[in-house]
Amino acid sequence: MNLSFLIAKRYFFSKKKKSFINFISIISMLGIGIGTMALVIVLSVFNGLEDLNRRIFKSFDPDLRILPMVGKSFILDEKQLNLIKSLNGIDYVTEVIQDNALVKYENSQMVVTLKGVDDGFQKHSPLRKSLVEGNFILQKDSVDYAFIGGNVYGALNISLQNIIEPLEIWYPRNRKSVSLNPDDNINRYTINISGVYSLEQFHDDYVYVPLSVAQQLTEYGNKRSSLEIQVKQGFEIPEIQKKIKKILGENFLVQNQDEQNASLFRAIKIEKLFIFIALLFIIGIASFNIFFSLTMLVIDKQQDIKTLFAMGADESMVKRIFFSEGAIVSFIGAIVGLILGGLICFLQENFGIIKMGMESSIVDAYPVKMQLSDFILTSISIIIITLIASYLPAQRAAKN
């Protein structure tokens, strides 16, 4: 065993004298342990939230979405569409017309996101798994239906049993001149409601209708807002994304699910970063106790230091003794914190001990996901903080 570490270990674990210095060292160790545990838990919760959002988007957003680089619509090119559909790994392609519209039901009204989709959506969309009432139908026996989100259902107080009262959709006409008669400036369409889905608050204000209905309301004709692509299992989405970009050229955006929700994931990462910095700052405050305890230890061990120099020890060895003392305090605290944090996250991940406390939440318990990178980053940060806190006392000891 290294001599400097052996001496430092003896200073810390000595049973002959339990002084105030030992007490401060223990407080330092507890502070670093609690801070490390909190850091691991909080980072794992943010990972869990990010993973939960990805699972939500998997039910709502396509694997790939094609959007125009400029404007909100583009003219559908059948040749390019057929080339995309023929790519190996493409499950299906959905043509979409999407825009804001006003919907009315009885005496209530609200602005919603109107989304017209083709026949493939009803056959393949994973949104049917989020059905909470009624049926997942957009067209049956040449009759058109609307499939609505939970926010629309609740805000308009809709009853699916009331088949007499349809949903009325209003959309402003695309006209160069405005008519003095307000009715001439609005396209209207009445449609029955087939079912209701509930997924997540920010995604439950959609009204899905057949593509032909959206074409009639928006007067888009051969224009589309986007193309939504689902990739078969076992195929790499980035590879297919590159192939589609090559087919379409520079006038289109081809986004994967993370890119479709880039602002949300960016916000989660920024918040995670600031929480990490804040908790690291708390651990840094706790490490000041290491600085004070080592400083007092240097004063207390003046005779020992002189003896070591008399026996031939050099300055670097004395430095290593007090560096090792600081390392023992912080490493024990950090290891205990990492173990406790990992254990709590494991229990939460598998047993859901801490509940969300909301009946309408998507998951019952707080989502948690541990990542090795968080443990490594936390450990490295604590090592750096420890070296900084231990440097000045060790330097002072070597100069005595």
TrEMBL record:
<feature type="domain" description="ABC3 transporter permease C-terminal">
    <location>
        <begin position="277"/>
        <end position="399"/>
    </location>
</feature>
<feature type="transmembrane region" description="Helical">
    <location>
        <begin position="273"/>
        <end position="299"/>
    </location>
</feature>
<protein>
    <recommendedName>
        <fullName>ABC transporter permease</fullName>
    </recommendedName>
</protein>
<keyword id="KW-1003">Cell membrane</keyword>
<dbReference type="Pfam" id="PF02687">
    <property type="entry name" value="FtsX"/>
</dbReference>
<dbReference type="Pfam" id="PF12704">
    <property type="entry name" value="MacB_PCD"/>
</dbReference>
<feature type="transmembrane region" description="Helical">
    <location>
        <begin position="20"/>
        <end position="46"/>
    </location>
</feature>
<dbReference type="InterPro" id="IPR051447">
    <property type="entry name" value="Lipoprotein-release_system"/>
</dbReference>
<comment type="similarity">
    <text>Belongs to the ABC-4 integral membrane protein family. LolC/E subfamily.</text>
</comment>
<dbReference type="InterPro" id="IPR025857">
    <property type="entry name" value="MacB_PCD"/>
</dbReference>
<keyword id="KW-0472">Membrane</keyword>
<feature type="transmembrane region" description="Helical">
    <location>
        <begin position="327"/>
        <end position="347"/>
    </location>
</feature>
<keyword id="KW-1133">Transmembrane helix</keyword>
<keyword id="KW-0812">Transmembrane</keyword>
<feature type="transmembrane region" description="Helical">
    <location>
        <begin position="375"/>
        <end position="394"/>
    </location>
</feature>
<dbReference type="InterPro" id="IPR003838">
    <property type="entry name" value="ABC3_permease_C"/>
</dbReference>
<feature type="domain" description="MacB-like periplasmic core">
    <location>
        <begin position="25"/>
        <end position="246"/>
    </location>
</feature>
